[in-house]
Structures are given as C-alpha cells and as structure tokens.
UniProtKB/TrEMBL annotation:
Record key words, sorted: Iron, Iron-sulfur, Metal-binding, S-adenosyl-L-methionine
Gene Ontology MF: a single term: cobalamin binding
UniProt xrefs under PANTHER family: ANAEROBIC MAGNESIUM-PROTOPORPHYRIN IX MONOMETHYL ESTER CYCLASE-RELATED (PTHR43409), BLL1977 PROTEIN (PTHR43409:SF7)
Protein name: Cobalamin-binding domain-containing protein
InterPro entries, alphabetized: BchE-like, Cobalamin-bd, Cobalamin-bd_sf
Cofactor(s) the protein needs: [4Fe-4S] cluster
A Pfam family it matches: B12-binding
Species per Swiss-Prot/TrEMBL record: Desulfonema limicola
C-alpha cells in the first residue's frame, strides 16, 4: 500500500522573528520530521513518502498527484491543528477515496478535535505501532475497530477507542527511522 505522511508547514511567528526581526530562523533551525520518520521506518511492506511542508511548503499537491497514495497520515501540534483539519477537507474534496488519518501531539491530547467527516481515523499516543496496524488492516480489508490507539471517526457521536499502553520497550523496540 502507498502511504503519504504529511508534516505541516510552520505555524505562526517564533519569538526570534517577532522580537528580533530574524526572518530566516525557521529555515536555519528546521529539524527533521523525526516522528514521521519513525513511523515510516515501522511500515515494512508499504511504500512510504514523507511530504515535509516545513522544508518544502508548496509540494503537497504535487506529492499527492505524483505518489497517488492509498492512505495519508497528517501529524500536527496544537498550533497546527486547524491546518490539519483544513488540509484534510481540501484533500477529501479532490481525492474522496483517499483514507486520511490524523495524529501527533494534538490528536493525542484532544482527539475529538479531529472527529470530522474529512478525517477517517485518529491515531493517539506513540503512533508507530498503531499506525502500522491501521495501515495493515486497511490494506487487507480487516476490521480496524479494536486497534489500540486508533479511533474511527464518527462525527455524529463521541469517539470510542482503546488507548494503547506503552512501556520503555516501545521506545527501544523500534526499526530505524526512514528518511524518504
């Protein structure tokens, strides 16, 4: 299965930009999308592309068109949450058959925020196992209900899902991050 992982563009202005007029700080100190790279590294058997909108903010639509994914995972911090919802809405308009999952810090803290008709699944907590199990289930056509850390969206009702329990082994037992 083809999986597109999307890292949102920078949100807002940083303190050095606001207070000191340093305009290029985000490009100088931009980090790798490590969380998505960890997820990608754990998606054995799937073809994965990371669309890093912080590094190349105008490539999302060409990435979707060229890659033609079956599943898109969008991560986001709280300051990026509105972008995630808006982008999922735009993607669903153009690609209604594309399955979309939202994850990241905001999804873990407030999963109900993403309980919209344009987002199909919400992945909470450390997503490497939950997202892999979700991708495998979608690919094989098996039931996604009951995957720990994954909620199937139901905009007309409250979310229901089983939280995934984590231990230090989850941090150690991982494949190397993929840098696609």
């Amino acid at each position: 299965m083809k999986i597109l992982l999307i890292n949102p563009p920078n949100c807002g202005k940083s303190i050095p930009e606001q207070e000191y007029g340093i305009e290029n700080l985000k490009m100088i100190f931009r980090g790798e999308p490590l969380a998505l790279e960890v997820i990608a590294g754990n998606l054995e058997g799937h073809e994965v592309l990371i669309s890093d909108q912080k590094a190349a903010p105008d490539t999302l639509w060409t990435d979707i068109e060229a890659f033609n994914p079956d599943l898109a995972g969008i991560t986001g911090m709280t300051c990026e949450a509105n972008w995630v919802v808006k982008t999922a809405e735009q993607i669903k308009k153009q690609y209604p058959g594309l399955t979309i999952a939202a994850g990241g810090h905001h999804a873990s803290c407030d999963p109900d925020f993403f309980n919209t008709s344009d987002i199909d699944y919400i992945v909470t907590g450390l997503g490497k196992l939950s997202f892999r199990e979700l991708a495998d289930a979608i690919e094989t056509g098996t039931e996604t209900k009951g995957i720990p850390g994954v909620a199937k969206n139901s905009p007309s009702s409250s979310l229901s899902y089983i939280p995934r329990k984590f231990s230090t082994a989850d941090l150690v037992n991982s494949k190397a991050p993929a840098t696609t």
